[in-house]
Amino acid sequence: MVYECIVIGAGIQGSFTAYHLAKNNKNTLLLEQFVLPHSRGSSHGQTRIIRKAYEEDFYTHMMEESYELWAQLEKEAGLKLYRRTGLLLMGPENGKDFQLIKSSVQRNKVPTVVLERQEFSQHIPNVNLTSGDAAIVETTAGVLYADRALRAAQMVFQSHGGVIKDGEKVINIEPGDLITVTTDSGTYQAKNLVITAGPWAKTLLSHTGLQLPLQVLRINVCYWKEKVPGSYSISNRFPCFIQMKPKEAEHDIYGLPSNEYPGLMKVCYHMGSETEPDERDRQTDRRDVDALSSYITRCFPGLVPVPAVVESCMYTVTPDNNFVLDRHPTYSNIVIGAGFSGHGFKFAPVVGKVLCDLSMGQNPSYELSPFSIHRFQGNAN
Ligand SMILES: Cc1cc2nc3c(=O)[nH]c(=O)nc-3n(C[C@H](O)[C@H](O)[C@H](O)COP(=O)(O)OP(=O)(O)OC[C@H]3O[C@@H](n4cnc5c(N)ncnc54)[C@H](O)[C@@H]3O)c2cc1C
Ligand SMILES: O=C(O)[C@@H]1CCCC=N1
Q1: How many alpha carbons lie under 13 Å from residue 61 in its C-beta half-sphere?
Q2: For the segment 53-105, what is each residue's pLDDT rounded down to a tens digit?
Q3: For ligand 2, what atom is nearest to the CA of residue 51?
Q4: Does residue 266 line the site of ligand 2, with CB under 6 A?
Q5: pLDDT above 70 as % of the chain
Q6: Which ligand minimizes its atom distance to the CA of 167?
């Protein structure tokens, strides 16, 4: 049988791409190398942050539709996937990052509240605001139940006739008007192909003669024990947070209210160490954990500053931290979604729609130049 489209990779991006293709009555096969569900890629884990607060207007605009599409999936799947908690943004008041994001949320009328220092503690208990930092709360931000969302997108895909073959690793791609995809247990043909392979994108794209500047990072996903159970919990209305320019490190620190593991709060460093996707846990670089412990000691006194649980995940980052959403420069029936740089989960419903449109030869409703392969001129071949 010839499929209309094959999607490689059943992470959140590939699952939503397949979801939109099937809902457009396209005969679609979703291929996944590991048996589902798995925790080897970038989309596993119970929670992710959803927010509109971005320095770049185009991300904020995409999130307007993304919230609507998340709500639509909740209805289709009959599941709660989003929990509003608010997002506390803290950073040096006169710093470029904080000023850019503050002007962006004001320009785009994102619902936010400015917290003056003298009122901070009554709104955000058990957190020390760094001297010289300012704070705003994006009130519609919250938590996405990631594992549940992934399953929901795959379930709705299948309910519209989509086929998932997991435990099948794609080992070769032969481009052409009919694309031949070979896995370790079969061969399939399709008129169109979407590659959403996360940390393995570089490997897969090499089968099509394309090299992109993608770097894979291993991320330590750390959970910290609350000294008083519940003090940073979702039920206690504690928000997600992003700490820009912490004193202890050069990249952001962020956290989500305790939820998936009662009494443990997820606080992570928004950077990791370079790795190979198939050997993610080979090295145990923990310098980021030490920086997190120092920050928690200083700013989150209600947490024990030694991680209770450390899990791992991976980012696939591009030089500018913007995604790759584009057609292959040589084969127009091959579409690529990659390089989500540690912040792509919340966009997946819209990313999937864009990749579906591109695959169906339609023009997406978003200006895609920030996500173009051609921006890597000289760095892509
Ligand atoms: C610790 C952590 C925290 C994060 N926090 C947030 C957050 O708060 N908010 C947010 O919006 N985003 C967040 N992100 C980012 C977000 O999770 C990712 O951007 C997103 O999950 C990327 O999805 P993906 O589908 O591209 O990749 P993946 O989930 O890695 O999916 C790719 C899939 O392709 C499969 N595959 C690869 N090669 C092959 C092959 N040859 N054959 C068959 N299958 C193959 C893989 O097995 C995998 O299942 C976070 C990421 C991490 C790691
Ligand atoms: O994407 C997000 O919102 C989170 C928080 C910032 C760093 C990574 N993921």
Answers
A1: 8
A2: 999 999 999 999 999 999 999 999 999 999 999 999 999 999 999 999 999 99
A3: 3
A4: no
A5: 99
A6: 1
Interface TM-score (ipTM) > 0.90: yes
Q: Which of 12, 30, 42, 267 gets mutated to test ligand 1 (max ligand atoms within 8 A of its CB)?
A: 42
Identify the active-site residue in 52, 270, 280, 343.
270
The residue from 5, 222, 299, 313 that is catalytic is 313
* pLDDT attached to residue 179: 98
Query: What is the pLDDT of the chain when averaged over all its residues?
Result: 97
* Distance in Å, CA 145 to ligand 1 centroid: 14
Q: How far is the CA of 60 from the centre of ligand 2 (A)?
A: 14
Ligand nearest to the Cα of 63, by number: 1
Whether residue 379 has pLDDT greater than 60 = no
Could you tell me the distance, in angstroms and rounded to a whole number, from the CA of residue 172 to the centre of ligand 1?
Answer: 21
- In the structure, which protein residues have their CB atom closer than 6 angstroms to any atom of ligand 1? 8-14, 31-34, 40-43, 48-49, 169-170, 196-200, 204, 219, 221, 268, 313-315, 340, 342-346
Q: What is the pLDDT of residue 286?
A: 85
On the question of pLDDT at 381 being above 70, the answer is no
- The active-site residue out of 52, 245, 266, 353 is 266
What is the value of pTM for the model shown? 0.98
Angle at the Cα of 97 from the Cα atoms of 294 and 241, rounded to 5 degrees: 50
Q: Return the structure tokens found at 218.
A: 């291993």
Q: Is residue 44 within 8 Å of 151, Cβ to Cβ?
A: no
The pLDDT tens digits of the residues spanning 302-355 come to 999 999 999 999 999 999 999 999 999 999 999 999 999 999 999 999 999 999
Cβ-based neighbours of 16, under 8 Å, separated by 6 or more: 153, 348, 349, 351, 352, 353
